[in-house]
Amino acid sequence: MKIYSVDIIADYFRSRTDADVGDLISNLKLQKLCYYAAGVMAAARQNDDRPLFAERIEAWQHGPVVPSLYHSFKEYGSNGIPPITGVDFSEIDARDRTVLDDVYNYYGQYSAWKLRNMTHEEAPWLNAYEQADGTITTAALREFFIGEFDEDYLKSYQSAA
Question: CA torsion angle for 53, 55, 61, 62 (degrees, to 10)?
């Protein structure tokens, strides 16, 4: 199972947006989509301690944030980040793309602030926000998200290997 760069995961989500219908992703929403992708993947990869992406996730005031990703897009403020097209995502395993699509299809329907509020009710952010370094670990993501998904869904990831 691969560990990706958060940039490729963010680009994947950005490639799914359709600016023509007003479907744009702000930095806040992109952060939450990457967090949820990391969480769902941690649950799906049950017996593998490797995270979806190498960069750390921190518990900030407005929810989980990947600092390097935040700095890449902070110039957009709360505005939409331009979508991208023509990117080859063949480096992302097919079963990982399926999970990313599931994350986008489910969580992408919500506004950035709705996602922010959702994360504030979840153990990974709540527990990390109280700690000095504020890191949200893969283990914490797995522990929480494994209980959020149907066992058949999680098994389908394993059987797709």
Answer: -40
